């Protein structure tokens, strides 16, 4: 299982990362052309790059999951509405039948 370090948190389960994907900011460092970059800064830049890639993937996964959930909710709502209208039509037909039968 992959462990992810996230600002003081070590996350072994990616689900919390997906849940809070859009909530944390990843600093971006720009280095001027030809400048000497210290090793620690290079390590931070590499870490930030991997974190930003993971964040982008998590945000995308969250968006896909949200879209799928919305589609399933829409489909289920349509089924419930159809069931309700069918039941109402059946009640109306039974009332009409009862009036005709006396």
From TrEMBL:
Q: Name the Pfam families on file.
A: Ribosomal_L30_N (PF08079)
- The answer to whether keyword Ribosomal protein applies is no
Q: Which domain of life is it from?
A: Eukaryota
Note the coiled coil stretches, chain numbering.
Answer: 63-97
User: Which positions make up the signal peptide?
Assistant: none
Query: Is the Coiled coil keyword given for this protein?
Result: yes
Listed A to Z, the keywords are: Coiled coil
Source organism per UniProt = Spumella elongata
Taxonomic classification, please? Eukaryota, Sar, Stramenopiles, Ochrophyta, Chrysophyceae
**Residues annotated as domain Large ribosomal subunit protein uL30 N-terminal eukaryotes:** 37-100
InterPro entries assigned to the protein according to its UniProt record, in alphabetical order:
Ribosomal_uL30_N_euk
Q: What is this protein called?
A: Large ribosomal subunit protein uL30 N-terminal eukaryotes domain-containing protein
């Amino acid at each position: 299982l992959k462990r992810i370090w996230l600002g003081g948190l070590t996350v072994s389960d990616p689900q919390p990362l997906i849940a809070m994907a859009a909530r944390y900011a990843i600093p971006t460092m720009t280095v001027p052309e030809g400048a000497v970059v210290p090793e620690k800064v290079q390590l931070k830049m590499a870490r930030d790059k991997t974190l930003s890639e993971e964040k982008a993937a998590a945000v995308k996964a969250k968006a896909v999951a949200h879209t799928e959930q919305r589609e399933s909710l829409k489909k289920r709502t349509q089924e419930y509405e159809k069931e309700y209208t069918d039941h109402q039509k059946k009640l109306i037909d039974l009332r009409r039948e009862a009036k005709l039968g006396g």
